[in-house]
TrEMBL record:
GO terms for molecular function: symporter activity. Keywords: Membrane, Transmembrane, Transmembrane helix. InterPro entries: MFS_2, MFS_trans_sf. The chain crosses the membrane at residues 12-34, 40-59, 80-99, 105-125, 146-165, 177-197, 233-252, 264-285, 297-315, 321-344, 365-389, 409-430. This is MFS transporter. PANTHER family: MAJOR FACILITATOR SUPERFAMILY (MFS) PROFILE DOMAIN-CONTAINING PROTEIN, MAJOR FACILITATOR SUPERFAMILY DOMAIN-CONTAINING PROTEIN. Gene3D superfamilies: MFS general substrate transporter like domains. GO terms for biological process: carbohydrate transport. One of its GO terms (cellular component) is plasma membrane. The keyword Ribonucleoprotein does not apply.
Length: 438
């Protein structure tokens, strides 16, 4: 096994400070910001959080093609990554800076505009970033190690930003000032992680197939999706699991507020879901080396799904047992994050060799488009569950009373819905054979 220098591994992992921060914070608080601070109806809020990420489905493959062209002609993907890190700062802050004088309709439009710009900036970094492992090392097991370090940093980032940012917001009393300071503090870390990854990892990566080729197109990813079973299955599994985890993250604040009746319990729920990754990541690496990445992903998915399903009794019998089951789900969540990203470079190699040119950016573009769509649909789908069960939105410091049906919807959306999505992903994963076929 060819071992990567620690400087490169650490630099690559630092990028997860950016991807983790952006991935978790909007998913955790944006829907709640819309419904319980700005007074936006749950149905409208679901549209606001979904549209910006849906746009990524269109633009991410284009960004991937641009990244491949840059890699083929200059040997580097850093220009887009730096652009994304720079543009993210103002767009992210403005997303959570809605003028207090705005009514619900104007507030929804404001958030929609700036969250869309923030999502585009994020895509400029994320697409080439996801393509890097293929170019950093060709070794099958070293890619698992590289991704495992990244996921450990991701988990730590999610803990710091996911738990710390809402704490900053709450310490300042919530509202406009609380969300503004929270966003500024979080995006400082996000941009720093993106910049470090660009400087220490991206500059060491080189295209592996077809360097110098000008025959690159944004449709390459869709061609691979229809023509390569490994890529098609793996992407489908990853999107379903991203959607499942996003639904659970979106529901955490509502479960804390309306089921556990303690807004501060969000921090405990969040830590219980994410912290296990810091402890079990070496175990998942050993599972991947011994049994293979597909087997590891299957085991992690089953563990997450069973734990999520068992949480369905939260509304009927809320209590500390919820935190324990969330922690079990967190062990599975760690593996669900690690193995697909460790398998993607192997698939990129396979497709690139078939096509005779580097396809890393193109495939990563569609991959990140699917991921971001799943992460966006999570809060949107959860909000639809709330709307269907009669959830009542709040504004300012008010916390509306919820019916028993609404509380049941909050709990089932947090548990049964993610379990069903993961069950669907398992059914798809079982079709993943060792050798890809058209």
């Amino acid at each position: 096994m060819t071992t990567l220098p620690r400087r490169v591994v650490g630099g690559y992992a630092a990028g997860s400070v950016g991807t983790g921060g952006f991935g978790v914070l909007p998913g955790l608080v944006l829907a709640y910001y819309l419904t319980d601070t700005l007074g936006v109806a749950a149905l409208i809020a679901s549209i606001v959080v979904v549209i910006p990420k849906a746009i990524d489905v269109v633009i991410n493959p284009v960004i991937g093609a641009v990244s491949d062209r840059a890699a083929a002609t200059t040997g580097s993907r850093t220009r887009l990554m730096r652009l994304g890190a720079f543009a993210q700062v103002p767009a992210f802050i403005l997303t959570f800076s809605t003028p207090p004088s705005f009514g619900p309709a104007a507030a929804a439009a404001w958030v929609l505009l700036f969250f869309t710009l923030s999502a585009v900036a994020y895509a400029c970094f994320q697409v080439p970033y996801v393509a890097l492992p293929t170019e950093l090392t060709p070794d099958y097991d070293e890619r698992t190690r590289l991704i495992s370090v990244r996921i450990a940093v991701l988990a730590l980032t999610i803990l710091v930003i996911g738990a710390g940012a809402p704490a900053v917001r709450d310490a300042l009393g919530g509202g406009a000032v609380g969300y503004l300071v929270m966003a500024a503090a979080a995006v400082a870390l996000i941009a720093a992680g993106m910049t470090i990854a660009t400087s220490f990892a991206a500059t060491r990566a080189r295209p592996v197939v077809g360097a110098g080729s000008a025959d690159l197109h944004h449709r390459d990813a869709f061609t691979a999706f229809t023509g390569n079973s490994h890529y098609r299955i793996l992407l489908t599994v990853y999107v379903l699991q991203a959607l499942a985890s996003a639904v659970m993250l979106a529901g955490a604040q509502y479960v804390a507020t309306y089921v556990l009746e303690d807004k501060g319990a969000l921090t405990i729920v969040f830590v219980a879901l994410v912290a296990p990754a810091l402890l079990v990541m070496p175990l998942w690496v050993r599972v991947g080396v011994r049994y293979g990445k597909r087997a590891g992903l299957l085991a992690a998915s089953i563990l997450f799904g069973v734990a999520a399903l068992c949480l369905s009794g939260a509304a009927a019998a809320p209590g500390p047992w919820i935190f324990g089951l969330v922690a079990v789900a967190g062990v599975g969540y760690a593996g669900m994050q690690t193995f697909p990203l460790a398998m993607l470079p192997d698939v990129i190699d396979e497709v690139s060799q078939d096509r005779g040119r580097d396809q890393g950016g193109a495939l990563s573009g569609l991959w990140t488009a699917g991921e971001t769509l799943g992460l966006a649909l999570g809060p949107g789908v959860y909000l639809l569950v709330l709307a269907a069960t009669g959830f009542v939105s709040s504004s300012g410091d008010e916390t509306a009373e919820q019916s028993d049906l609404a509380r049941t919807g909050i709990a089932l959306g947090f548990s049964v819905l993610p379990a069903l999505l993961v069950a669907g992903s398992i059914a798809v994963l079982l079709r993943y054979e060792r050798k890809a076929t058209p």
